[in-house]
Amino acid sequence: MGRTRKRFSKEFRAEVAFEALKGEKTMTELSSEFSVHATHIAKWKKELADAIPGIFAGKGDPEEKSKDKLIEDLHKRIGQIEMENNWLKKTAVLSIDDRKKLLDRTDKSMSFRKQCELLDISRAGLYYEPKGESDYNIELMNMIDKEYTDHPDMGVPSMTAYLRNSGKKCGPKRVRRLMRLMGLEAIYPKPRTSIPNKQHEVYPYLLKDVELTRPNQVWSTDITYIRLKHGFAYLVAIMDWHSRKVLSWRLSNTMDVGFCCEALEEAFLFYGKPDVFNSDQGPQFTSGEFIGLLKGKGIEISMTGKGRALDNVFIERLWRTVKYGNVYIKGYETIAEATVGLKEYFEYYNERRGHSSLGHKCPDVIYYGESYQHIHSINKEKKRSKKREMTATATSNF
What is the tens place of the pLDDT at every residue in 368-378? Predict the structure, then answer.
């Protein structure tokens, strides 16, 4: 089969010829810029040069006016293309969410329609509002969450069988989609388990056989699904491995990188920084924004392989404790309610809950060591002061 000959519009040929005629760029540069062979460019340049004398055929000649208009249109078109190219330079290798952030309805130099076209964004998608999950899907997700907490080795087939045996109508496609939405993956060894995003940098696991001897030696993080009455949320936590102390946490209705960065920055603010920070290879923790915060502090970065939850075993145990000790019991209805309840639980977890692996001491005792009593008394006084403040405010308002 013969090759299809590429056709170029008159406007395109005129634009390229005009650039060649200006003599500001080499044929190689023009060929690379417009993806046209130099032979074509030379031919079009000659045709344009030969046509120029005819422009001055007569002052009132209609042909002259037509060619004047052509030159004027070419100038405008070239200016427009240069502006669009400059505008597009900043959009190279960006995700769809990042490209959406570049849209500017107040930009007078370029229409909103043109911005969407250049950024390869569907305008219809900008106005689409997702319906959210049905009550039935939420019920399935809550069942999946509880079963996965007990048996993290359950994949799509076994989870589908479990739900069907429980009297629920669902197929593997639905279960797979819901587990992906929840960020769940069965834990089992498999070939090529880690296929990183090419745009994100992935780091090796540094903590094999490492002995934990002090606080702030190793921190780690993870995200888990939190069930609500009419929906769900995601919880991220930053934990100190040596003491099991929860340094910071955040709730969010989406699994974006923003709430993860907020939790990390809060941990830095109140507890300094660790020698090593460990996470899984989730897109939140391999993103440039999150990695940049760690690199900015000079912290060594460690990442577990996909499907190897035991590499981050301490925070996996935390999720089980939080869900059975608080979330499943309380049955939170809203994110606001869950935020208040989890705040109280994490205070209890850090200050009063004994851990068998810590000699039945609470994380704060291990983290602060000899200064624990002093720190604890300061915190208690802060709480008393806050209560007195609230009481005084309520009294004055009354």
Answer: 886 666 666 66
